[in-house]
Amino acid sequence: ERPDGWWRSAVVYQIYPRSFQDSDGDGVGDIPGITRRLDYLAELGVDVLWLSPVYRSPQVDNGYDISDYQDIDPLFGTLEDLDELIAGAHERGLKLVMDLVVNHTSDQHAWFVESRDPASPKRDWYYWRSARAGHEPGTPGAEPDDSPAAFAPSAWTFDPASGQYYLGMFSPAQPDLNWETPEVRSSVYEMMRWWVGRGVDGFRMDVINLISKPAGLTSSGPVDPGSAGFMQIANGARLDEFLAEMNREVGLEKNNLITVGEMPGATVDVARRVTDPARHELNMVFTFEHVELDKQEGGSKWDLADLPLPRLKGNLAEWQYGLAEAGWNSLYFDNHDQPRAVSRFGDDSPEHRVHSAKTLATVLHLHKGTPYVYQGEEFGMTNAPLTEIGHFQDVESLNYHTLATAAGVTEVEVLRSLTRKSRDHARTPVQWDDSANAGFTDGTPWFGVNPNYVGINAEDARRDPASVFAHFQKLIRLRHELEVVREGRFELLLPDHDQLWAFTRTLEAAPAGDEDQPRALLVLANCSSTPADLPADGLPGLAGAVLVLGTHASAPEEPRLAPWESRVIQLG
Ligand code: TEU
């Protein structure tokens, strides 16, 4: 059952199936492996499981290139395996969300194969365009191409058979669907209804703000040069229309499904519009702004830059304020596309790893919105020792290495960027215990297990009351129990402090019928590896305040916070 607004008190756990748990010894995680771990997930206390794609796929982008939306890739199992997982999740009160990847299909999808024939009625299911003055459609006269794809030199691929190019914003293996074509939309909605019928509880929608593209891509004419760049092609004029239509046609709201739209390049304004309940589009969106701050202005993710704390906490606060009156935030530091949070935003040294993982989680989970836990984040998994190009497998990382070295960037510089930001860091197998391959597989793992699994694994964490796992359990419980965590108004304090992350959550009144619930919380976090002193002013009075959850045994008013110490304090 899914009561109205249930997702506002939910915590979502993201599973990247190929790296979660292998059950058949082929070295790749699979669906029966997930089913085996349901009790662990129920013990953690999360409410929803989001599966990264398990559909049939050539696996060019690890499943984000789908060749059959209504079948399971044999790598991961069968539809029956998935039915068992859904049933097993529901038995434990867990919900299951599928990853909806409908901005593009695989180039092996039957729709695209048919679309290659210019005479096919499916020709306009994709973006086919003729060359412009002998150049690719998006680049009038410019050479080389200035229409980069995310994982390939160009977003346009020439098809000799038909003499035209097709658009693939990510890679040639991922041709973009043309959502201007009504049959594309109705076919997607039919597929979504089929999944709702199989008992799924919602969808995470991959790059969903790309489905409506600027005008230059909807006419038969050439692409408008201004829209050639990767992210200028998002947030087109019909986005809201398509999302509202999807909501109606699939019954997203009618069935109280949870929906989260992944929206690279979306601003607070776009999010406020798309998540405004009055518009019946989506429940929430994933923003990319905070995970694109640690790069040089105007550069790519590979152009590294340090990230002063005021910029990070200021961005999350901007999204809190922007969606305070209408709409809803999602909260994440980690996912399958980002390096591990404790290595990126915390300090993964042996001395500080546990405290910084707990404190980052405390800060994130005490913001207003739905928190997302990425597999392994709940016990502080770190980046892996990926230091030479042979260590990397991700299409995005390998493409960057190829393009950057060809453009003259030194191997050392390219590897420094990859070592810091590659998506591969999030794809090392989950470290379950200290047995061979960390209990992930009894075969040869598709990707190397991080050697630090002996000391960092779920089994040890489950047994240790002082572990990161135990802290996540407490944070999740706070969200389930306290209205002020779910609905309290957010206010950032000490915005310019470069060590302390401090904010309050406040209810106008205690929740009806539960008067002894806290009405106001203060979160204090030292997000640095050196001690931090509370300023004399700028914080509410702490005398007599109660420590609700802390990483250390300090009293709320203790003026000094240890490195990576955080406190959740009840003010009233
Ligand atoms: O990611 C969208 C996206 O923009 C990311 O590719 C991001 O820009 C990049 O990974 C940052 O390093 C979604 C999926 O989450 C991702 O795994 C897919 O590769 C991509 O879409 C294409 O489906």
TrEMBL record:
Keywords (A to Z) from UniProt: Glycosidase, Hydrolase
SMART domains: Aamy
SUPFAM superfamilies: (Trans)glycosidases, Glycosyl hydrolase domain
Keyword Ribosomal protein found: no
BP GO annotations: oligosaccharide catabolic process
Residues annotated as domain Glycosyl hydrolase family 13 catalytic: 14-427
Pfam families assigned to the protein according to its UniProt record, in alphabetical order: Alpha-amylase
GO function terms (MF aspect): alpha-amylase activity
Family: Belongs to the glycosyl hydrolase 13 family.
NCBIfam families in the record: PRK10933.1
Protein name: Oligo-1,6-glucosidase
Organism of this sequence: Tessaracoccus bendigoensis DSM 12906
Lineage, highest ranks first: Bacteria, Bacillati, Actinomycetota, Actinomycetes, Propionibacteriales
